[in-house]
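Audit log entry. Action: structure prediction of a protein-small molecule complex. Ligand: zinc ion. The ligand was supplied as SMILES and no pocket hint was given, so placement is left entirely to the predictor. Protonation state taken as written. Sequence taken verbatim from the request; no trimming, no tag removal. Recorded inputs:
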Amino acid sequence: MAPSRQPATQRAADRRTTGRALQERRLRIWSRDPHCAGCGRLVAMHEFELDHIVALINGGTDTDDNCQVLCVVEPEACHRRKTQADLGRSR
Ligand SMILES: [Zn+2]
């Protein structure tokens, strides 16, 4: 019998996850799919940042489902480009 797990309640979806929780989320998302969502290449743990698929400033939620792996290493550096696009769209 598998123990039933309660889904984590999201009391503070408008607050950005920081610190150890963020590190754990990084590992969790990366383990799920270690490929950059932008260019599709396989990235190592130190070669990506978590990106909010819908940026928080654009109304996205700070949840695993809204997070993806984006590389930060050149030449693609998808996370930097995505961030710039997110900022541009919010204007
Ligand atoms: Zn990439």
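Audit: result stored. The domain at 19-89 is CATH 1.10.30.50 (DNA Binding (I), subunit A). The chain has two helices and two strands.
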